[in-house]
Amino acid sequence: DFSQALEEIKPAYGASEEEIQEVIQNGIIEFDSEIHEILEKGKLFVNQVAKSERTPRVSVLLNGLPGSGKTVFAATIAWQSQFPFVKIISPDRMVGFSEAQKISAITKTFNDSYKSPLSVIVVDSLERLLDWTYLGSRFSNAVLQTLLVLIARKPPKGRRLLVLATSSLGQHIVDLGFSEVFDASIKVPPVSHLGQLEVVLRSVELFASESELRETLRQLSSAGFPRNASEAETPTLPLLVGIKKLLSIIEMARQEPESAGQRLMNALF
Amino acid sequence: DFSQALEEIKPAYGASEEEIQEVIQNGIIEFDSEIHEILEKGKLFVNQVAKSERTPRVSVLLNGLPGSGKTVFAATIAWQSQFPFVKIISPDRMVGFSEAQKISAITKTFNDSYKSPLSVIVVDSLERLLDWTYLGSRFSNAVLQTLLVLIARKPPKGRRLLVLATSSLGQHIVDLGFSEVFDASIKVPPVSHLGQLEVVLRSVELFASESELRETLRQLSSAGFPRNASEAETPTLPLLVGIKKLLSIIEMARQEPESAGQRLMNALF
Amino acid sequence: DFSQALEEIKPAYGASEEEIQEVIQNGIIEFDSEIHEILEKGKLFVNQVAKSERTPRVSVLLNGLPGSGKTVFAATIAWQSQFPFVKIISPDRMVGFSEAQKISAITKTFNDSYKSPLSVIVVDSLERLLDWTYLGSRFSNAVLQTLLVLIARKPPKGRRLLVLATSSLGQHIVDLGFSEVFDASIKVPPVSHLGQLEVVLRSVELFASESELRETLRQLSSAGFPRNASEAETPTLPLLVGIKKLLSIIEMARQEPESAGQRLMNALF
Amino acid sequence: DFSQALEEIKPAYGASEEEIQEVIQNGIIEFDSEIHEILEKGKLFVNQVAKSERTPRVSVLLNGLPGSGKTVFAATIAWQSQFPFVKIISPDRMVGFSEAQKISAITKTFNDSYKSPLSVIVVDSLERLLDWTYLGSRFSNAVLQTLLVLIARKPPKGRRLLVLATSSLGQHIVDLGFSEVFDASIKVPPVSHLGQLEVVLRSVELFASESELRETLRQLSSAGFPRNASEAETPTLPLLVGIKKLLSIIEMARQEPESAGQRLMNALF
Amino acid sequence: DFSQALEEIKPAYGASEEEIQEVIQNGIIEFDSEIHEILEKGKLFVNQVAKSERTPRVSVLLNGLPGSGKTVFAATIAWQSQFPFVKIISPDRMVGFSEAQKISAITKTFNDSYKSPLSVIVVDSLERLLDWTYLGSRFSNAVLQTLLVLIARKPPKGRRLLVLATSSLGQHIVDLGFSEVFDASIKVPPVSHLGQLEVVLRSVELFASESELRETLRQLSSAGFPRNASEAETPTLPLLVGIKKLLSIIEMARQEPESAGQRLMNALF
Amino acid sequence: DFSQALEEIKPAYGASEEEIQEVIQNGIIEFDSEIHEILEKGKLFVNQVAKSERTPRVSVLLNGLPGSGKTVFAATIAWQSQFPFVKIISPDRMVGFSEAQKISAITKTFNDSYKSPLSVIVVDSLERLLDWTYLGSRFSNAVLQTLLVLIARKPPKGRRLLVLATSSLGQHIVDLGFSEVFDASIKVPPVSHLGQLEVVLRSVELFASESELRETLRQLSSAGFPRNASEAETPTLPLLVGIKKLLSIIEMARQEPESAGQRLMNALF
Ligand SMILES: Nc1ncnc2c1ncn2[C@@H]1O[C@H](COP(=O)(O)OP(=O)(O)OP(=O)(O)O)[C@@H](O)[C@H]1O
Ligand SMILES: Nc1ncnc2c1ncn2[C@@H]1O[C@H](COP(=O)(O)OP(=O)(O)OP(=O)(O)O)[C@@H](O)[C@H]1O
Ligand SMILES: Nc1ncnc2c1ncn2[C@@H]1O[C@H](COP(=O)(O)OP(=O)(O)OP(=O)(O)O)[C@@H](O)[C@H]1O
Ligand SMILES: Nc1ncnc2c1ncn2[C@@H]1O[C@H](COP(=O)(O)OP(=O)(O)OP(=O)(O)O)[C@@H](O)[C@H]1O
Ligand SMILES: Nc1ncnc2c1ncn2[C@@H]1O[C@H](COP(=O)(O)OP(=O)(O)OP(=O)(O)O)[C@@H](O)[C@H]1O
Ligand SMILES: Nc1ncnc2c1ncn2[C@@H]1O[C@H](COP(=O)(O)OP(=O)(O)OP(=O)(O)O)[C@@H](O)[C@H]1O
Ligand SMILES: [Mg+2]
Ligand SMILES: [Mg+2]
Ligand SMILES: [Mg+2]
Ligand SMILES: [Mg+2]
Ligand SMILES: [Mg+2]
Ligand SMILES: [Mg+2]
Questions:
Q1: What phi-psi label fits residue D69: left (phi over 0), alpha (psi between -120 and 50 degrees) or beta?
Q2: ipTM for the complex?
Q3: Structurally, how many domains does chain E consist of?
Q4: Same domain, A198 and A170
Q5: What is the mean pLDDT of each run of 10 residues along chain F (269 residues)?
């Protein structure tokens, strides 16, 4: 049966469990119902790959601002798939690689996946894999071409593959030709109103007392930040902060408990 | 006789049957009479190569939007030719190749074809073979020059060659100098009205009931999508979707049978 | 005497007769008196090289639209010179060469020619030798510089050399600096009126009956194509087709004898 | 305990004490209260790294005009951290390195730091590490990508890292994509009014007599230089000089004690 | 004495007499008094190098249209110097050289010259040595820098060097930085009026009879070509042809004696 | 004592006396009091390096028009310093070097200097060291970065270094980032009025008689050239000639003693 096949395959080419777990260890704070929906969509794509006869390969792009949580979503969906082959292609593990070495590492991961009946590959941070820089729109065309072909390529007969890529390239995704190779794309949202912020603040317990929390939110509200989703559409003062950045700001504020609220607000302006 | 020659030649340099069959295995849905005409035109070119004394080399370009079915048409025409030498030059098989390796692989295929009295070469996806990217109009000039010379080059005495190339480069084909090397070009159309869509939907049996199908088409129609070819010329809301993308959308919709119609419609807007 | 010298030289560095004959085998259809004049001009240059003391090197550029017959003219003039050394430098024989290999092959041909008292070198398709592409005006500067020097360089004492180059680069010839290195240039014309077309059609016997030919010409005429040279100067609908393309169109039309006229006309619009 | 761990680790991969001490040996003149605040902020980040569970990696950018003292601040904060691993990545020690050698040296420093429980890395002078030049906005993209990944990369489990980078790139920091990888940024101010200048002049004892000092300041004041912070906001004649440049000017002036005031003033205009 | 020194030196590093003689063998037609003056100026520079204590190195640029005779003038001045070391640095002898090989050959010639007490180096055709092309203003910066340094460099103590460079780069000479390294520049004029043309035609004896010559000149005059230097300043129809091109045209015309005048005129328009 | 230390050090890494003497052998004509001041300023910087504790490294830029005497000033200041280590980094000694070889030679000179307690390095002609060309603002970024770091780098403890660089790059010095690395800059002036010219002419004794000199100056004056410094500020006809060019012009004029005045004037217009 399936789980047995899984057992046998793993030793052969190893689902890099540790790597994935490291990425997802800090968990996901559900500061909005959208967060849940992203994971649900992920499950649908996992099912499609596992079941549909006609689409043995499905590729999905997760895009959003820097630090909005793209990597953690991709890794979580991959992990929850329970597919026997799950790998992350990450720039973190390619520091100092030459263009040729990068291409070879990327290609190897795809080729390895073809040995498993069911695979997920997370292609993390297209911008860094491509050596992208806005100044002069420079990037590695060789890596780009490799990714364009590999993401679009059908796996061999009997093999199924889900590709989850992350990117903060925005519209450049189209200019670079990526839009043709993805079957679907999921938008990862930033924290954009005080209702969401409150969920996060409670979750990480920045403030010692409820009153401090209340007071901070009140001040942010009177400064003009949107209080809820509908206000966020036409904000006096927009709040657009990636969850990763927000968590980092909170940790800095935590260093000075007496003035945490003040520090937090300074950083948000 | 001919078939005997075929037998003898095959072992020597192998018509890559598997490769071709893999490409054409999903078949062609005849959602329009144009589909049939493309295959007929293909046969004419096959005949011309086989018979005309003056044109031992004929080259044809299949162009169309991404996912419109260019590769499957080229492969089908090649397969139906029953020529002893049939090969696909595909970026899928050149991942990670250096420029020099690509050129050498392409050149080898043409040189191999010169050993057979009758050959078809499918040059698939000029844009990927060239490492083309719209951003900065970058491409490999060395591969371009190789293709320009090889596609235009007459095979040696007594040898005949049909070249079928595919591309979604649109007008860039002219800028790149390809227009001079092709004897003819065939336009591969996207699905552009609901009549065609209906043929496809019936063919893949997305809906469990006729009423669901009807309802979905009715809603799409009232949304403004053209109902037939003549409406498609001046559409309220244009429908322009490659068959490959359409089939992918359908498979996603199939994952949630209860709301398949809705999913399909969301994806088409 | 001369012919004896010729005999002796040939074995040493071989006039590549086969190569030349292959190019000229399809012959030249004299669809206009200009065609004859080109060959006559060629003979004058051959004589000048053979006789003038002051110009041991003459270089001539044949330019014209793609497929207008430049290569066949250059090869024919070269062949008719009956010089002991006749060689074609052709991109067809340099596929996959690196820049350095191209330069070395080109240089070798010129150096070899210096061993013969009388030589013709056909430098075919400057645009392909240079890896020229209109998109971004890219080209190999190293090959360009090599050609500029070699075409302008005087052969050693007692040696005489005619260089015949072909190009469809139009005005770019000047930008690239070629205009300074050629002593003269010959324009190769396309088929530009129905009178010329008729000569070609009769010559290749596309139509089974005289009436079919007449009818086709009549229709083309009433569509607005110029009937003769004077009409071609201010045409309602210009006819500008290289003879090579025209012959290819004719062969395609020939595949459907019943509708050959129609096919021909479609292709000409 | 902690200090013992420190002892043990040092021999293994050496905190380069000498290197750091060399940088900080000339000390910091507290010409403004801001100077003190910078060092205090530095301590907060050091604490955050040492204590916060959620932010095992904190990265801070020190930016300011050339010669404003960025390097000395970064080195001082690093030194005062008393972390067992403290290293400076400096262009001074990479003269003549190839791009690959630079990348390898940078990467090695980060990898070495992962062996220590607590580390500080000073990434000094991003502009020189990147081979940045304003003329044509040239820079090494390979070094840029390496820094972007390494500065953002989380250290392995149980390791903590503070990255202190310095730069005078101003807004180009954003174009180059650095703004995403820093958790915070500190502005290093130039000397901008005569009150600050006076502190510096007294500290380095340029003038032999109080009257000379007074007279020089008086002249500078009447020339229009701002006398204090509030005047510096809308100065008649702005004073904007890095402390490094200022100290160099003072040393030149010192060579001619009789006209030191005059020399100083000439250099400040 | 001097001539003895000359004898001894020659065998050591060879004045390449043959090479020079080959260049100057066709002689100089004195079609204008300017021609004589160029050679006289040349002698002055030769004397300056030989005698002035303060200028052991003099560098002169000969510039003019392509084919105006720059090379023959430089070679003639060099030859007439009777200096023991006379060499031509010519692109003709560097075909197929890599950039590094070119630089090494150029450098070697200069270093060799330093072994002779008196030397002339002809640096022929700066544009070709630099791989210059107008399209995109491409050139070899490495060769340029080498020439800029070598032409400006003082020879070692006791050595004297005259550098004669030729170029048709016009104003680009300034852009490329050459204007700073030449002590003087000489303009080589084209044939610009019929008086000069007549001298040339008589000298090469194109026409069999005086009347033919007269008739041709009369026709050219009535076509509007300037008859003398003063008319050439504001010509109806300018005549601007390099002597090299003119001599080539004459040889072509000579092939058809009966219509030589006509051919000549066609070519001049 | 100091002079003994000097004796001991020299053999070890040699102050290249010959090299320097060669550069300064032709002497400096004091055609203006400014000339003297430049040398005095030089001495101040030498003293600063030798004495100030706080500035063990001082870097000075000498900039001016081509041929204004920058190199001779830098070499003279270096020579007069009597420091044990004096070296010139000159493009003249790097002809044909690759980028890497240049960088290595430059770096070696700096590293060698660190072995001497007191050193001067003349970095001659930044533009040629950088392979600078105005056309397209091309230059070697690798050499630039090396110079930026080395000129700014503090020598090791106990070592002192004066860097004297020369350049005619004008404002490009700023664009290239050099302005940040120099502590001071000295402007080297051209000959700009007839008073200065007269000093030069007398010094080199171009004219045989006082009357000839007077007459020439009178003519230049009436032509509109400025007679003195104040006229030079708003000249009718500006005189702006580097002393090097002027001396070269004078030597040419000297070749024709009878018309020396005329020749001189022609060259100055
Ligand atoms: N709702 C959430 N969504 C995403 N991440 C969350 C959420 N709540 C908490 N987190 C935490 O926020 C961090 C998001 O970081 P992550 O690296 O996934 O962002 P990213 O968008 O990939 O950033 P980058 O643009 O730098 O690649 C993770 O540490 C994750 O555990
Ligand atoms: N009428 C049709 N025409 C073409 N393809 C069809 C048709 N009906 C079904 N198909 C299927 O649609 C898919 C078309 O994909 P194909 O790769 O040929 O498109 P493509 O234009 O080459 O795409 P790409 O631009 O990505 O190269 C194939 O799987 C094919 O079996
Ligand atoms: N009058 C003619 N002139 C030239 N070619 C003719 C003529 N009549 C028939 N032909 C045939 O037409 C073809 C011309 O092809 P050729 O390769 O010489 O053209 P081309 O201009 O060199 O093309 P390209 O631009 O592709 O290099 C040859 O096969 C030749 O035999
Ligand atoms: N208040 C101060 N802040 C900074 N540096 C000071 C201060 N007072 C004195 N200094 C001295 O000024 C010098 C500042 O030099 P530093 O190299 O740190 O500047 P920098 O901004 O890094 O320069 P660069 O832009 O060239 O890298 C040091 O020698 C330092 O000892
Ligand atoms: N008055 C003249 N001046 C120069 N050349 C003359 C003159 N009369 C005859 N000639 C001949 O004209 C030819 C000039 O050619 P030369 O190669 O010197 O020209 P060029 O300007 O160097 O050409 P290019 O621009 O191609 O380098 C030589 O063959 C020379 O013998
Ligand atoms: N007052 C003067 N100043 C400078 N040089 C003088 C002066 N008087 C005479 N000379 C002589 O003028 C020449 C100046 O040449 P130098 O090479 O120093 O100029 P440069 O500015 O370095 O030129 P380049 O821009 O070519 O590098 C030297 O030969 C020097 O001996
Ligand atoms: Mg991420
Ligand atoms: Mg395809
Ligand atoms: Mg051709
Ligand atoms: Mg610094
Ligand atoms: Mg020449
Ligand atoms: Mg100099």
A1: left
A2: 0.93
A3: 2
A4: no
A5: 44 59 92 96 96 93 97 97 96 96 98 97 98 96 98 95 97 95 97 97 94 95 94 92 96 92 90
